[in-house]
């Protein structure tokens, strides 16, 4: 175990702005385990997770500057997630073994069309805004559960453990969230 | 919109929602850690008589690493990970050692398992030869013999408590009983290694089976995380791999060897199934070797011809060919009614039957002359305990003798309701473990060591009136020495959990001093060894 004292987020961001490659090393020291755990929830393959991590560091290096994120961890999470989604999609095309992300997306089966029925141009950013509106309408716990389950693809047991509630409580909340999401998507014209 | 698009849209969720989520996640995890901190220190030290410093210094001592560092107060949350609790109550020390045991929750529903009793990555078997040596040549081992159709393969994956092997369970409809009496119309049959399509497309199959369980036979549904009870259970004789020769498939009434071609278990070695086919062909071509290669079926045989072969061989007392043998154990169906007759036997039956916090798995062994042994083991959260009740003896008028802890010092007498009221859920711990992230604590990993596999196994022991949970992590690595010989190296690590769910890493020798005669605690040396047999 290395005895490294991590820098503050502001100091790390400043390294990026100075184009000092130590920024990557500091990011790795401070956030590697966390980012790998985010990727692992979605991909369940250590090789793919490492690839994701590298993509995240490259993405961050390219984004800062001009970005100067106010919350580095959240910024990295978003980039990591996008990288993980890309790898996930690639694996699905190759029909490789799915991850717990598949489980969380499968929960939304009845809301979402199958591949064959999709025919119109799709605006991910616009849908992202609709989902954001919906998430804002949830309670604090509901928001946490939604983000954990669908954004971070965390297993239900882990969510229950973090919230110190039972698995069935989480399942009930998810059922209510799905119901609300269906109504929101319908009202915005996304229902199939 | 499809799932992929929904997933992509989530990437465009507003940044402040992501920030809020991460802050909330960090805060929740920090408060969970603080809530359990004094319990962890006090309870573990009290239970195990290990000092606070020793508990948290232990992972570091194992690897001879520098001590943990104090985190900068301005970034208190940033270096915590999902598996990194702080080390003591006086300063925010953060341990980033991935080996640190996670907290075990306490659950009081013993029928439902939130977790798994074992987990594996890769292949931890030391040698193919170990398996081959036990089983001998593939063949048809005739005990209870039936012709049946596969009605259903249950959709989930199953485990048997205490074992890391996964099973599928099929429901068979018996068309004809070739050997054995009293069988029900439908039976449950478990098999290992293959998926739900192994038996697809065959009109019928001949199975040679042994009954391994009576009513309330427990299997752990790994997919759903719960215990399930079956009215009985069968598996193929000697070796539970259906590709080994005790299952013969038929299509349009003629033997269909494609089943054996499908059965591709065991590393990359093409199969015992293929071996079977080759030997049948050899038999045809080489009559001198006929007796040494005799099998119950030949290419082109009909169902009726195979049945006749089996019955003739079973009737011949001298039948002992390399690929066909008759097992002299009773082939008839056994039920609880046959076994539990006297008042004391019925009392045992009531004790081990499903009830409030009572979950017992069992193994039935039927030998010659209707002698029956059943061994019951209490399980908690799918993991074995040391409450074991053996019955030795017969069925019907032969009766049986019940053995509990008397002659087995590593077995414990009855777990009480009070014992069971507070139990750490180590199955949950195993489910949370990331086997790819754990680091073997005793061996050095370098360019010579290539991971073959890693497994985690959990079990419970009642020690001096308290229930402890133990999780064993076991690694096996290929070891490439300069001579190119086949070598391997192993490592193991143990977590010990007290009744409050607090866990610490404990060395094997220390664990052995606490728990006497536990075969789950390993004994190998932490140095390269030659493969036992190839």
Overall description:
The complex is a heterodimer of chains A (192) and B (534). Chain A has 192 residues and is mostly helical. Chain A has 9 helices and no strands. With 534 residues, chain B is of the alpha+beta class. Helix content of chain B is 24%, strand content 29%. Chain B has helices at residues 3-10, 15-48, 52-63, 128-135, 258-262, 272-285, 303-315, 336-339, 343-352, 417-420, 426-432, 508-514, and strands spanning 118-122, 140-142, 144-153, 158-159, 166-179, 186-192, 204-213, 217-221, 226-230, 233-236, 247-251, 254-255, 320-321, 324-326, 360-366, 372-380, 383-393, 400-403, 449-463, 466-480, 486-497, 503-506, 529-530. In chain B, strand 11 and strand 12 (254-255) form a beta hairpin. Chains A and B meet through helix 2, helix 4, helix 5, helix 6 and helix 7 of A and helix 1, helix 2 and helix 11 of B.
SS summary, helix count of chain B: 12
Instruction: Briefly note the structural class of the backbone of chain A.
Output: mainly alpha
Low-pLDDT ranges of chain A: 114-120
Characterize the overall form of chain A: globular
Largest interface: A-B, 67 and 55 residues
- Tell me the major beta sheet of chain B: 10 strands, antiparallel
The profile of the biggest β sheet of chain A is: none
Element pattern of chain A in H and E? HHHHHHHHH
Termini separation of chain B (Å)? Answer: 54 Å
Strand content of chain B: 25-35%
The helix tally of chain A amounts to 9
Arithmetic mean pLDDT of chain A: 81
- End-to-end Cα distance of chain A, whole Å, is 52 Å
Total strand segments of chain A:
0
Helix content of chain A: 55-70%
Report the C-alpha radius of gyration of chain B, rounded: 27 Å
Percent strand of chain A: under 5%
Query: Helical amount among residues of chain B, as a percent range?
Result: 10-25%
Unreliable stretches of chain B (pLDDT < 50, length at least 5) are 37-96, 127-136, 266-271
């Amino acid at each position: 175990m290395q005895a490294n004292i991590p820098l503050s987020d502001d100091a790390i961001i400043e390294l990026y702005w100075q184009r000092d490659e130590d920024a990557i090393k500091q990011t790795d020291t401070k956030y590697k385990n966390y980012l790998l755990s985010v990727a692992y929830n979605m991909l369940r393959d250590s090789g793919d997770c490492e690839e994701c991590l590298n993509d995240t560091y490259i993405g961050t290096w390219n984004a800062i500057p001009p970005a100067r994120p106010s919350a580095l961890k959240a910024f990295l999470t978003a980039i990591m997630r996008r990288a993980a989604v890309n790898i996930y999609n690639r694996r699905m095309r190759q029909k490789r073994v799915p991850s717990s992300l598949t489980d969380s997306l499968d929960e939304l089966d009845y809301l979402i069309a199958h591949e064959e029925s999709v025919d119109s141009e799709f605006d991910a950013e616009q849908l992202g805004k609709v989902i954001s509106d919906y998430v804002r309408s949830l309670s604090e716990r509901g928001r946490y559960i939604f983000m954990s389950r669908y954004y971070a693809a965390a297993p239900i047991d882990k969510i229950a453990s973090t919230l110190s509630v039972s698995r069935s409580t989480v399942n009930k909340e998810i059922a209510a969230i799905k119901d609300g999401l269906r109504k929101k998507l319908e009202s915005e014209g996304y229902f199939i | 919109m499809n799932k992929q698009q929904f997933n992509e849209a989530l990437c465009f969720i507003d940044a402040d929602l992501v920030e809020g989520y991460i802050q909330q996640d960090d805060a929740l995890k920090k408060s969970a850690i603080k809530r359990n901190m004094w319990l962890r220190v006090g309870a573990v030290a009290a239970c195990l008589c290990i000092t606070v410093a020793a508990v948290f210094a232990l992972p570091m001592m194992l690897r001879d690493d520098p001590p943990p560092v104090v985190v900068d107060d301005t970034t208190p949350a940033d270096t915590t990970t999902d598996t990194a609790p702080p080390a003591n109550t006086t300063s925010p020390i953060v341990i980033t050692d991935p080996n640190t045991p996670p907290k075990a929750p306490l659950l009081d529903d013993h029928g439902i398992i939130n977790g798994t009793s074992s987990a594996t990555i890769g292949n931890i078997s030391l040698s193919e030869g170990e398996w081959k040596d036990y089983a001998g040549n593939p063949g048809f081992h005739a005990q209870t013999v039936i012709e049946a159709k596969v009605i259903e393969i249950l959709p989930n994956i199953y485990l048997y408590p205490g074992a890391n092997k996964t099973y599928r369970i099929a429901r068979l409809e018996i068309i004809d009983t070739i050997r054995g009496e009293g069988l029900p119309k439908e039976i449950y049959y478990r098999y290992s290694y293959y998926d739900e399509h192994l038996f697809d497309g065959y009109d019928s199959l001949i199975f040679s089976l042994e009954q391994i369980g009576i009513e309330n036979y427990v299997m752990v549904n790994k997919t759903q995380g719960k215990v399930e009870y079956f009215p009985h259970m069968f598996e193929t004789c000697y070796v539970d791999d259906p590709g080994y020769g005790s299952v013969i498939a038929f299509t349009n009434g003629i033997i269909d060897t494609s089943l054996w071609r499908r059965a591709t278990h065991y590393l990359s070695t093409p199969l015992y199934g293929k071996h079977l086919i080759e030997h049948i062909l050899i038999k045809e071509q080489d009559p001198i070797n006929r007796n040494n290669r005799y099998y119950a079926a030949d290419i082109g045989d009909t169902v009726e011809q195979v049945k006749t072969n089996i019955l003739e061989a079973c009737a011949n007392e001298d039948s002992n060919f390399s690929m066909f043998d008759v097992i002299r154990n009773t082939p008839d169906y056994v039920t609880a009614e046959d076994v539990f007759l006297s008042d004391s036997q019925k009392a045992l039956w009531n004790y081990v039957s499903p009830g409030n916090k009572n979950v017992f798995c069992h193994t039935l062994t039927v030998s010659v002359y209707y002698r029956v042994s059943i061994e019951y083991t209490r399980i908690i959260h799918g993991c074995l305990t040391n409450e074991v009740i053996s019955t030795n003896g017969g069925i019907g008028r032969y009766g049986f003798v019940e053995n509990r802890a008397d002659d087995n010092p590593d077995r414990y007498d009855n777990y009480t309701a009070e014992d069971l009221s507070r139990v750490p859920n180590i199955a949950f711990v195993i489910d949370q473990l990331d086997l790819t992230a754990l680091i073997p604590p005793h061996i050095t990993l370098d360019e010579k060591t290539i991971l073959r596999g890693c497994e985690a196994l959990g079990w419970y022991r009642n020690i001096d009136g308290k229930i402890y949970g133990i999780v064993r992590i076991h690694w096996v690595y290929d070891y490439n020495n300069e001579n190119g010989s086949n070598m391997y190296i192993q490592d193991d690590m143990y977590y010990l959990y007290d009744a409050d769910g607090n866990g610490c890493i404990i060395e094997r020798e220390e664990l052995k001093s606490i728990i006497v005669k536990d075969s789950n605690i390993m004994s190998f040396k932490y140095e390269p060894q030659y493969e036992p047999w190839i």
